[in-house]
Amino acid sequence: MSGTLRIIIMIALGFGILGVLIYGIMRILSFVAQGYSKVSDLVDDIRKGDAEAQATPRSLSNVDRIVIPQILRRFPEYDNELMVRRAVMDGDSYLKSLLSGVSSFTEKDGVRSFLEMMEETAEKAKNTVNWTDPRVHSAAVSKFEDNGDLCYVTYQVSYQYSVEGYTYQRKLAVKYIAAESPDYEKKIQVYKCPNCGAPVSQIGQKVCRYCGIALKTAAPLSWFIFDITDMS
Ligand SMILES: [Zn+2]
């Protein structure tokens, strides 16, 4: 009888050990499953965050109050609202040029070096652009640079495009130069003060630095695109 009892005890022990093992394995499996569902929740959250971020246009620099007075001191007739509208249109033309493979900018828009760069960039983009539906949101002035002879104003332009149903928000920097013609490099330095003959090199210079006589610029200054870059 003691032999039978021993066998029964051993079987019971065996089942006990097996039960503990199975329970342990089940616990581990459920722990892993929970962990996995937490990870997948996290991935969902990240996707949701991305989708929200992608629906919101990139924020633009907010320095109008600082930059516009700087520009107006040098160019009293400067019209920022007009330039904001222009920056939006130029941003739009830039993106459409990349899509079509043909630059839509002319000598009215930009300096010679920009026009040449744009033709190359558009030609190259024709085979590599993988996005569609570009849309420009808005523009804001971000910088004024006065290097004496040359003055630049830069606008940030926010835009979006789509890749395989996803929307991406980005920014361009459109930099304008004050010049009399697209060939600003050649025309600068050529003017002389009609009174004393001193060179008048500074664009927008109102008074001769040497004799102090009031100067008239030979041609009205306009703002030409100097460069457009993707800030992303
Ligand atoms: Zn002079």
Keyword list:
6 strands, 4-stranded antiparallel beta sheet, binds zinc ion, 24% strand, alpha+beta
What does this structure look like?
This protein is α+β, with helices and mostly antiparallel strands. The chain has two domains: 1-55; 64-230. The chain is built from five helices and six strands, in the order H-H-H-H-E-E-E-H-E-E-E. The chain has helices spanning 2-55, 64-74, 80-100, 112-128, 184-187, and strands at residues 132-146, 151-163, 166-179, 191-192, 199-200, 222-230. It has a four-stranded antiparallel β-sheet with strand order 1-2-3-6. Strands 4-5 form a two-stranded antiparallel sheet. A hairpin with a 6-residue loop joins strand 4 (191-192) and strand 5. Helix 3 crosses helix 4. The protein is rod-shaped, with a radius of gyration of 34 Å. The termini are far apart. The model has no long low-confidence stretch (mean pLDDT 84).
Q: Mean of residue pLDDT?
A: 84
- How much strand content do the residues show? 15-25%
Gyration radius, rounded: 34 Å
Q: H/E series, N to C?
A: HHHHEEEHEEE
Major sheet details: 4 strands, antiparallel
Helix content: 40-55%
What structural category do the secondary elements indicate? Answer: alpha+beta
How many angstroms does the end-to-end distance come to? Answer: 85 Å
Strand order of the largest sheet: 1-2-3-6
Number of beta-strand segments: 6
Low-pLDDT runs: none
The oligomeric status of these chains comes to single chain
How many distinct helices? 5
User: What is the global morphology?
Assistant: rod-shaped
Ions, cofactors and other ligands present here are:
zinc ion
- How many distinct folded domains? 2
